[in-house]
Amino acid sequence: MSSSAVEPEAADLVCQLENVQGMVDSLSAVRWKRHQDAVVELSEHGIVLILEESNCLQAKVYLRKELFAQYDYNAEERPRFGVSLGLFVDCLSTFTVPGRATAIEIRYPGPDMQLLLKSLDSSDACIYAEIRTIIPDTVSWDYNFEPAGSVPLSFTVKSAALKEAIDDLEWPGSSIRINLKPAPPSVSFRGEGHGDLQIDLMYNANSDLLLDFNCNRPVSHRYKYKFLRATTSNLPSSVMKENRGSKLTIGRGGMLKVQHLVPVGRAPFPNPHVIDSASHQQQPGRIAYIEFFVKPEEEEDDARND
After folding, report:
1. The whole model's pTM is what?
2. Helices marked H in the chain — which ranges?
């Protein structure tokens, strides 16, 4: 059989996104240092990007298929590959234009297992990018987040206020203690190792920073500052401008889950070069979900834990 008669294999995924800036914002939110390798998992439900550090911190970005104008998934098994997060974000950023929504197509795999990007904004010119992928060294481990009891231990705070509180407590090598108290309902962030700096958030009918609070008993856990700061260090301006809330939940053993919602806006006008699916048109929420899991520091057997 001649080579011209051989059909090329269908890509595992071909998807189109109307506004690449939303994806840049979402991935930048988990970019807490210069060199990071991420694991990308593809499925019929969407794209998940996972990062880990020191077995103490894990971040996940969920890009549901409804966020894409087109999402053609053809893989029999769920593809999984590694990629440099910084390179991925920088490549996506080259497709952005200030003040204007720009559309791209993402395809995987290329002929040499690359991740392929292509601009969709013009029939006269086109920008292409290829990102080399790698085989992940390890399997991302499941943090197995479990509730700490029958009543969830959680609170929702304005994202900007959360970032400001964590930034204000900065001290190299320090730890941050998070205390939840049911009466009066409050959350406190206390910097340990450099004095008595503490930030208190009270929950009441007039609260404008603490939006929701669930706690039926006093809870106190300590977290390494550098890992806690990673959860807010690069929140996009779109989250701040829309006054969105971030939800923090303390699970069994003190595991901390931090959740952010990042808007992924649509183009203000239809793009003639983008295939817009019916499910995409009917999708009301244009949100990427960001989750961080932070392990607590081991506590000493002091009076605090008696």
Report:
1. 0.88
2. 20-28, 85-93, 159-168, 225-230, 237-241, 278-281
Query: Exposed/middle/buried for 19, CB within 10 Å: 0-12, 13-18, 19+?
Result: buried
Written as six digits, the tokens of 242 are 């829309």
Distance CA 263, CA 286 (A): 6
The structural domains of the chain, ordered by start, are 9-141+264-289 (3.70.10.10), 153-254 (3.70.10.10)
Q: Read off the pLDDT of residues 136-150 as tens digits, 9 standing for 90 and up.
A: 876 666 767 887 778
* Angle (nearest 5°) at CA 288 between 110 and 209: 155
| Residue type, position 193, single letter | G
Give the rounded percent of residues in the chain with a pLDDT score beyond 70: 84
Over residues 166-217, the pLDDT tens digits come to 999 987 788 999 999 999 999 999 997 766 789 999 998 778 899 999 999 9
What letter represents residue 281's amino acid? Q
- Could you tell me where the DSSP H helices lie in 129-277? 159-168, 225-230, 237-241
